[in-house]
Specification:
With about 100 residues, the chain is mainly alpha-helical. It has a domain of about 70 residues. It is about 65% helix and about 0% strand. The protein has four helices and no strands. It starts with 9 loop residues before the first helix and ends with a helix.
């Protein structure tokens, strides 16, 4: 094996670290929790959308273009409701990472 070394530009690495978003040290826990839950709600909505792709719009509500239009809103609300009632643990992980970022700064 040959000795292989990559040149590292330490200044650009430091500059990249400075470009990271800053989380205010005084952010209260409620706001952090709310932000983490919002992230989980969006993630869950994206995961739920494929479940509804094959469902026809005909049925007890009459179907049609309006039902297709509002289906996305309904799925977003499902995601919010799931996240608000405990979710699947993503909000906890996101909040923990946000707190770690806050400690580093």
């Amino acid at each position: 094996m040959s000795d292989f070394a990559l040149p590292i530009d330490t200044q650009s690495t430091v500059d990249q670290g400075r470009a990271l978003p800053r989380i205010p040290k005084t952010a209260d826990m409620r706001k952090l929790r709310e932000t983490a839950q919002d992230f989980e709600a969006v993630f869950l909505s994206q995961m739920l959308k494929p479940m509804f792709d094959g469902i026809e719009t005909d049925g007890p509500f009459g179907g049609g273009a309006a039902e297709e239009t509002w289906r996305g809103v309904m799925i977003d609300e499902y995601g919010k409701a799931i996240a608000k009632n405990g979710g699947i643990g993503i909000a906890d992980a996101v909040m923990a990472e946000m707190l770690k970022m806050q400690e580093v700064q």
